[in-house]
Write a structure and sequence with these properties.
The structure is a single chain. Helices cover 0% and strands 38% of the residues. The protein is mostly beta strands. The chain has one domain: Rieske [2Fe-2S] iron-sulphur domain (Rieske Iron-sulfur Protein, 3-layer Sandwich), CATH 2.102.10.10. The strands form three sheets. Strands 5-6-7-8 form a four-stranded antiparallel sheet, with no helix packed on it. The relative contact order is 0.20. The structure holds FE2/S2 (inorganic) cluster (FES).
């Protein structure tokens, strides 16, 4: 389902559509081999590297918790990636991006 947002990779940055990412819902997908988690918080598009800071599992969106929950050992992150519950002790990494029309282009280096 979330993969529909992924467009073909570009030579620099990689693209996905922003319009399908709604407040209160999270989507996960890969760009190349990079796992991404994205949602909106107060209208702001949040793009996270979807790698749990405990042992590296990919988190999943929890509609109940309105955040990112790790299926491996139960860590919970707020929608913006802030750690809420351990065992993880660190936030998910926010990724820098810019918009090109409706397309989100990840900035290089993050
Ligand atoms: S890898 Fe996510 S809680 Fe352990």
């Amino acid at each position: 389902m979330a993969r529909e947002y992924v467009l073909a990779g570009a030579a620099e940055g990689l693209l996905m559509k922003a319009s399908g990412i709604a407040e209160g819902k999270g989507v996960t997908f890969d760009i190349g081999r990079r796992p991404i988690a994205a949602t909106r918080v107060a209208g702001e598009l949040i793009v996270l590297e979807n790698v749990c800071k405990h042992e590296g599992c990919e988190t999943e969106w929890s509609a109940k918790e309105q955040g990112w929950e790790c299926p491996c050992h139960g860590s919970l992150y707020a929608a913006d990636g802030t750690v809420v519950r351990g065992p993880s002790e660190a936030d998910l990494d926010r990724l820098d991006y810019h918009l090109d029309g409706d397309e989100i282009v990840l900035d290089q280096g993050r």
